[in-house]
Specification:
single chain; about 60 residues; alpha+beta; three-stranded antiparallel β-sheet
């Protein structure tokens, strides 16, 4: 599965979830009635590594 397929599946099937995008990652958060700034993290997909995370080798081309 590709990143967008996973995110779409979660948003379509997990009630009261929202997508939050930050530098290098996308997250699904449970946020009933938008009561919290983001909500409670359900899933995070990291798409590229940062300065403090070079060992994960996430900057590959086939993501």
């Amino acid at each position: 599965m590709k990143t967008e397929e996973i995110l779409k599946y979660c948003l379509d099937n997990l009630k009261n979830t929202i997508l939050v995008e930050r530098w290098g990652e996308k997250g699904i958060f449970y946020n009933s009635n938008n009561e919290l700034k983001r909500g409670i993290s359900v899933l995070t997909i990291k798409e590229k590594g940062g300065e403090n995370d070079k060992s994960s080798d996430l900057n590959r081309k086939n993501i």
